[in-house]
Amino acid sequence: MARVGKIARRTFLIGAAAVAGGVAVGYYYYRKPFPNPLEAELGKGEATFNPYVKIGADNTITIVAPRAEMGQGISTTLAAMVAEELDVGLDRVMVEHGPASHAYYNAAILEEGGPFAFFDESMTAQAVRSGLGVVGKFLALQGTGGSASTRDGFDKMRQAGAAARQMLVAAAAQKLGVAAADLETADGSILHKASGKSLTYGAVAAAAAVMAPPAEVRLKDRADWKLLGKPQKRIDMLAKLTGAPIFGIDVRLPEMVYGTVKMSPRFWSKPVKADLSKAEKMPGVIKIVPLETNYGHGFGIIANNTWAAFKAAEAIDAQWSDPEYPLGSAAISDVLKQALGTKGSVMRDNGDVDTAFADAPREKIVEADYAVPYLAHATMEPMNATAQFRDGVLDIWCGNQAPTLVRQLCANAVGIEQDKINVHTTFMGGGFGRRVEMDYALCAALMAKETGGRPIKVTWTREEDMRHDAYRPAAIGKFQARLGDDGMPIAVDMKMASPSVIAGTLRRLFPSISPLGPDKTIVDGAYDQPYTIPNYRVRGIAAPVSIPVGSWRSVGSSVNGFFHEGFMDEIAVAGKIDPVEMRKRLMAAYPSAVKVVEKVAAIAKWGEALPAGKAQGMAFTLSFGSWVGEIVQVADTPAGIRIEKVWIAADVGTALDPGIIEAQLISAAIYGLSAAMGQEITFADGMVEQSNFHDFDAMRIFQCPVFEVAILENFHKMGGVGEIGTPPAAPALANAIFALTGKRIRTLPLSKTVAFA
Question: DSSP alpha helices (H): ranges in 432-529?
């Protein structure tokens, strides 16, 4: 990876601060657990053992799975971790999200935040990871993202189940007057085989809960797993299939009023003048209030029903000040190009790239420019939140990816202490990073102050949602390679420019904090790939465009998967080397990567002759700790290019639920293919031009290919799942189109160049 002497001052700064911070605050404080939030909310006859387990006297077992369920199945997998060690099946437990609490902090979401590839296990890399883990404890962010939920929960949630089981057994041993070693557990009961006596967990839960936790927690060997490692029935499916009111948009409360928002269509701009008179006189309208948050300016409409609020929002006549960013897409692109001409921050610098190119023969040089557009999250459930402010207490119901942030920011907005806020996290109809933002919650909280104690459900129109996102940033890249006499690359130089996701997120969530050091999300998916090339440089530049950008499924890897793997395909073609064979040779130092490439090539029968009018393309990316190869097969039809089949091989280290992993790989690939085929957000007069699915469409069912998935477990560390199928999708499709048509498409969406059937 990068040489320490070249990049230490720029990229190790955060990691060093993390390590120093961990030492300074003291080991004891770091190890001290947060209070168990369940103790304050126990029902009659309930006992709690830790923040993840409640058991009632009637043997009702409740597991808290404190990560956002947005369709990815995380509530099932997290519950299975606890249930496995508790010796109960998922059919015997209830699963809930639980309250907003620091006890549910996600340490893993930060651990890979340093400037190191996942496979880098040097002393420095490991020290920074440890330091960032300490920082994660002190920030105590309860968040869902970064494909980190299973990695974060794998130890702590199994330990919670195992500790509870050991305490239950100890209590049963006391009650039965036998040795704990002579007791067995199964299906929520404790059995003494010698006497035939048994007790349910519920019968001893109260006594067990007051015992001291075990000094040593014994976890099951993998060979003894009954739930983990096997597909499980999704605990959220019955409610979803039967239309149960589980989403934020389903919330109904007594005496509820309704609302919507009309925010400035130019980000950060204030209203120059506004005429509310027509809207205020419309039937059903109760009140229109100004809104001002870290997300911008606008108006909240309070009404007797949602439709009345929508129609009143349309009737508001407002003029908005000029934006602080360029007005149109072409001008924004010019800013990116200007930024690309600057030096940037080096995140990988092997060998001596400048010397390698200095004497390169022209015929050995491969050059390309790539570009991708802004993208919206476009969740199926529009942004919404329900809030009630009464007697100095705010209750808020919403699907969200960060409950402690909802609590903190809403407390600041309303002007009360955080302990006066109750966050009720619902299931959500899609997240993809959009619901780590707080705009929908903040607007509902502010509007709840104006309803006299009545609850208000605030629902965004699809158009408001599409035009007020925190977008996946647009990006451009310049790429250069020098080939050796054998056609293999001996030098690559990669340079990318895009607006900073980190800086943009801080402006909205933590405006008092300035971004520190380079934003590695600009180069994620390029600087951290397992390719061994003698001279290898990757640079990133933060372009000064302040349109809100944020985490979009797979974040920087969604951009650089396309850039990096498209360019690698170009290198293979220029060097007259098979793309699969070239990758295997370049990644020979990383057996897990090679096995993934070999597996996906084998199941796709790569290299076998295809019928005329068909072709395949492949791509590989390492993201969020998992190694993924994808091959896309396309066919030329009279109606356009048809994506026929997609093969995916993924090494996730430890596969906790193969069924959910397969579903997530397919879901993420479809998300990536949809964006690659036809999605883009463009700007005119400072405003987003797209408004709904008619002009920001996704892949339709009739376009969806057949998928074949192989799940591998070769790498010694667990990787993530929810985002990893997205980065290789676009480049594999573009590479397949090149193989079919000879057209090398370097700009997304692909529909600007080819038609899809």
Answer: 439-448, 462-466, 501-509
User: What is the per-residue pLDDT for 138?
Assistant: 86
Q: How many CB atoms lie within 10 A of CB 226?
A: 14
User: Smallest Cα–Cα separation from 717: which of 86, 21, 116?
Assistant: 116
Distance CA 256, CA 250 (A): 13
What's the rounded mean pLDDT across residues 575-581?
A: 98
pLDDT over 50 (residue 12): no
Pairwise CA distance, residues 178 & 92, whole Å: 27
Give the C-alpha separation, 73 to 673, whole Å: 21
CA distances from 469 to 144, 379, 443, 496, 681 (A): 18, 11, 14, 23, 10
CA distances from 574 to 440, 518, 561, 609, 639 (A): 49, 33, 20, 21, 31
Write down the number of H helices and E strands in the chain.
22, 27
Which residue has 């001290």 as its token pair?
32
Interaxial angle between packed helices 591-603 and 579-586, expressed in degrees from 0 to 180 and rounded to the nearest 10: 160
Contact 459, 296 (CB under 8 A): no
Burial of 237: CB neighbours in 10 Å, binned 0-12, 13-18, 19+? exposed
Q: Which amino acid is at 555?
A: V
The one-character DSSP state at 269 is: P
| Cβ atoms 247, 428 nearer than 8 A | yes
Strand partners, 710: 649
State the Cα–Cα distance between residues 397 and 444, nearest whole angstrom. Answer: 10
Average pLDDT over residues 483-509: 97
Residue 636: phi and psi, rounded to 5, are -85, 120
- Lowest-confidence region among 127-141, 222-236, 437-451, 495-509: 127-141
Cα 439–chain centre separation: 18
- Lookup: tokens for 619: 């791509």
> Which residues, 6 or more positions from 579, have their beta carbon under 8 angstroms from its beta carbon?
568, 569, 572, 573, 617, 618, 735
Within 10 angstroms of residue 284's Cβ, the number of other Cβ atoms is: 17
Question: Count of CB atoms within 10 A of residue 611's CB?
Answer: 6
How would you class 661 by CB atoms within 10 Å of its CB: exposed for 0-12, middle for 13-18, buried for 19 or more? buried
pLDDT computed for residue 19 by the predictor: 38
d(CA 475, CA 340): 10
C-beta separation of 648 from 665 below 8 A: yes
* 8 A C-beta contact, residue 550 and residue 506: no
User: If you write DSSP's letter for every residue of 552-578 in order, what string do you get?
Assistant: -TTHHHHHHHHHHHHHHHHHHHHTT--
pLDDT tens-digit series, residues 471-480: 999 999 999 9
Please give the backbone phi and psi of residue 206, each rounded to the nearest 5 degrees, phi first: -65, -40
Identify whether the C-beta of residue 204 lies closer than 8 Å to the C-beta of residue 184.
no
- Tell me whether strands 53-56 and 46-50 are parallel, antiparallel or unpaired: antiparallel
3-class DSSP state of 725: coil
Q: List pLDDT tens digits, range 306-344.
A: 999 999 999 999 999 999 999 999 999 999 999 999 999
**What is the token pair recorded at 440?**
């929908």
Q: What type of residue sits at position 190?
A: I
Residues with Cβ within 8 Å of residue 452, at least 6 apart in sequence: none
